[in-house]
Amino acid sequence: MSETPSNSPAPDDFTAANEPFQMFEAWMAEAEKSEPNDPNAMALATVAPDGLPNVRMVLLKGLDPASAGHERGFVFYTNLDSAKGRELAAAGKAALLFHWKSLRRQVRVRGLVSAVSSAEADAYFASRARGSRLGAWASAQSRPLESRFALEKAVAAVTARYPLGEIPRPPHWSGFRVTPLEIELWHDRPFRLHDRVVFRRDMPAEAWAKSRLYP
Fold first, then answer.
1. Residue 197: count of CB within 10 angstroms of its CB
2. What was the pLDDT predicted at 15?
3. I want to staple 102 with a disulfide (CB 3.0 to 4.6 A). Which of 34, 129, 157, 165 is the partner?
4. Quick one: DSSP state of residue 128?
5. What integer pLDDT is reported at residue 9 of this predicted model?
């Protein structure tokens, strides 16, 4: 993540911000210094086919720069055949939540979901640890597993298939981008009189409308 630009509000003065991405980047930079584990962890909320919500923790793996050639978004990767992969593809919408306990801050995101390009997925997959790449082939994520031994056997079979050299990206493994229509920044204050600022827009290419919310 980039450092806070000199012309942007300080992290504790986020209520003066005119757009949310610079503040998110500033907060993430601080979280990377203070959070003991996974500052890029975020709760991902989807809707299952039965209409019930689903939520789980995933890791943010990219925040598009302003010059990316498309609207900025939050990028993560998963097994496309997993529960979350199927739900994201079906609904095309999702919500994210970052909570940095050490900083007493959180960021809520709601937006539209799209698939990353094959080139993006290939590049990130190649950057992963070898064991993680083997695991992506071996795990039928979200499906019933008869035993731990069955998983270890599957990993051993994939390891034998790719003993040396590059491991190609599985066709069932890729990434998603959440392009936000709403981003809310929240900062803890004494006596539960917290600061909350929300940025909203109807479509990704539109300008942000900003408002403060009661805590």
1. 19
2. 75
3. 34
4. S
5. 54
